[in-house]
Amino acid sequence: MCRYRLALSLLTLSLLGCPFVLVLSQDEFKDAPTSGDSDADSSPDSSLEWDEFDYSDYKPEHELDRGSWHPIFEPDSTASDITEDPMMTEYYSAVKKILWAVTGGEVGMMQEATAEIEATAVAGNPHAQSVLGFLYGLGLMKEWNKTMAFLYHHFAAEGGNLQSKMVLAYTYSRQDMYDKAVKLYAELAEVAANSFLISKDLPVIEPVRIHNGAEENKEALRKFRGEGDEDFQILEYQAQKGNAGAMYKLGLFYYFGLRGMRRDHAEALSWFLKAVKKGEPRSMELLGEIYARGAGVERNYTKALELLTLASEQQLYSAYNSMGYLYVKGYGVEKNCTKEYFQKAADNEEAGGHYSLGVMYLRGIGVKRNVKLACKYFIAAANAGQTKAFYQLAKMFHMGVGLKKDLVMATALYKLVAERGPWSTLSRWALEAYLKGDIGKALVLYSRMAELGYEIAQGNAAWILDKHEESSMCIGESGLCTDAERHQRALSLWWQASDQGNEHAALRIGDAYYYGLGVERDYERAAEAYMEAKCRSNAEAMLKLGYMHEHGEGLPLDHHLAKRYYDQAKVANLVGNKECEALGMTSIPSPFGPII
Question: What global pTM score does this model have?
């Protein structure tokens, strides 16, 4: 029995609307075989070598996610994608028209773009089929039709479009069809995991919740205005004056496109090199990994090892993990399958070290295979928020190796990792459009991301529809959205977000039923939704439940209960989830019927 418990492990990724809490009990572990047992060959990776750096060629995100909109939003690095294939040229031309049309609410241009997308899709282009599925699913110049949306996404996925695979995986998971969802999410999570660095996860593209309840989240948005942000200007000034830490942070912002900055690898490398000359260890480590992967530079294992060694000499223990990998693979050094470097990192509480030791014991690389011990190390890494460890645990749940087979848990963990894949760049483009005042473009980008299953994007798109109303440039089935179309689209998005734990979404669903926005007025269903929001500690829902009890609207006339809810809202002394569980509340029934 693997006797290690992963309790209340929080993976607080900004891709998630709320912290991911993974709790494993003893019952979820199983007796695991050691080397030589029959189960050894059923390891999720038994047929694969351990490859973190070793790709035949480094592939940028737009190549991993074929058909993505990189050539439109970041054309400098991807211009060749548009001209190589005539059908792709037609595809990107149509997508550009869609984005231009939603910027100004140009219905005629949208009709033209939709016709071009449909023609390219019928001709067999999987990426156009994916966009056509999106248009049907949204009801954008097409009659809202979930069956047609699913059909075109199925065709696109069969043709290799990864974003449509995300849509299908999310759709299957919402229907509890975990046998189908887990296979797709496993493939997508592998693509995402292969893009991560060794010592730590690459800084996540930062999806920002643009609203705080009913109001715009001005404080969060302020930090993502790129060069126009005062904090960035101060950081840049400090870097120019020779502050090594500021140089490193600037390099990060440019390399990964963080805080509203456009990615610029040349500028990033310039800052990293300046920081290295001043002895900044984090820059040494990151630059070492960049050279080892050949990510934007010519691959050079010798230089990578030199930089990582310098970082480790300054007690940056995560660098030992990358050094250990180079030795295990024999890159730039004589091959040596030793766990020494990984152990050094793990002994100093570096999650990457725990992860790498887990891989060694899972696969028997340089050590006797021991799934129990691998399980221990993966759990330690996951408790420290190491995404790759969650990926390994997902595979163990998926295959039933070391952990009891659990497709629900495997699906959830794969989804968590998959959402860090290259398609997450949609969030950066959406936020950039929003900050520039291009609300229509932001709405379409967030809606596309919402379709892929991102809770924050679902909430952002719904909030834009509710808050900006006509200025959202919402385009419906035959023209600019009617109020009914806009309310119904927002409600559908709030429903999806609520299913993933968004407390404000449950409140907005209650409002929709209370005021009759997109659905018939129904006080009882409004109360049901407000109770769900109240269970998620939403004070405004408390006030509304109190009001409904006070006036007998959808709830029994009960002044005592009304006062109780008012008091709870006032002092935030909420009863919380235990009461909700006692009431048997898990989710709000959707009025939209089956998902497909």
Answer: 0.85
